[in-house]
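Lecture 7 notes: from sequence to structure.
We start with the chain below.
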Amino acid sequence: MDFNYKTMNRRPPLTQSQDDAVSSPSFQISLMDESSAVTGVQSIRCRAAVCRKPGEPLVIEEIIVAPPRAREVRIRITCTSLCLSDVTFWKLKDPPGIVPRILGHEAIGVVESVGKDVNEVKEGDTVIPIFMADCGECADCLSVKSNLCSKLPFKIAPGMPRCGTSRFTDINGDVIHHFLSVSSFTEYTVVDIANVLKIDPAIPPNRACLLSCGVATGVGAAWKTANVENGSTVAIFGLGSIGLAVAEGARLCGASRIIGIDINPDKFEAAKKFGVTEFVNSRSLGDKHVSQVINEMTDGGADYCFECVGMASLVHEAFACCRKGWGKTIVVGVDKPDATLSFSSYDVLFHGKSIMGSLYGGLKPKSDIPTLLKWYTDKKLELDKFVTHEVGFEDINQAFNLLMEGKCLRCVIWMKK
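Predicted structure tokens for the same chain:
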């Protein structure tokens, strides 16, 4: 991962007069920096849930959010949802884990101010921040073949994508780090314009925010990466929120059989709502491998196999039970950074199978997410069933507990409920 700590800015503590000024309802202060000299916009004091120590409850505290610089926007977050990736990085003690940090990357909000050279959105626009950049200028963004921006490539970095510096400081002037170019566990955040999508404000915020990451990733993996065909057979390893989103995408694409594989048999009833037609409990197979069972069930393997857990061993099982000649194995789950995959050259060459990764479901944010939003308004894409809990910002740690205990799919966190 690309970290550049030397360029990360540090601002001085607030004076007493500045401290008094931020008590107004607007939360604005007169603290200025080089970015405000360009935009004429002041810093903001607001609440944020800060990860101070790995694995410990987030601390809700007041922070300072600097004005947006060139090609950046400052957003007032309406609500944010909790993704398992937030939990993963919340626990990390070594890089790319870093503290203090503001996590969160599934959100929706309203543009509060814009930096220089921002023409795509204006103050008052409703937007979704997305961790995948879509600059609209590089060869990758101009191609239909990729969603991997080469101008602002995906990195798990602690600062803004163009300069590496932070827009967050605590009230003592110490830097607080960013997360996935979004950092939505705060009342205000600053995001690069390449990571912002303007949407219709009439769409319910507690549904639109789901398309910032998880649900869009799963649906996109079936729709864009795999291009699941009508009447095909799909096998999904892992029925968490991502796996169920894959099932939703496969259902939308017309798959006739959607086989869910999980260690928890209690998930099957809920999975039926997402289109899963059959269930395999991988803990009750005796001496058989999961791949052997799937091959037997499908008479030679599934057309499309999705690994949604993030385990190399399951990727191997998925590859072993995708049909020879045309089977595709799609890796969606995020494994440990040092995890490796190993395949027989014979299997790859003589069986004609393919394996591919699917970052953000292969979706191009600014062209594909509007399609998903239309599917939702047309009642084709059923987002409602993904939201199992909703809490206020002050209860954000409760949301972490619910997700870790396996009691929720998506928990929406409202800044003001």
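Points to note: Residues 215-360 form a domain with the Rossmann fold fold (CATH 3.40.50.720). Residues 279 and 324 are 22 Å apart (CA to CA).
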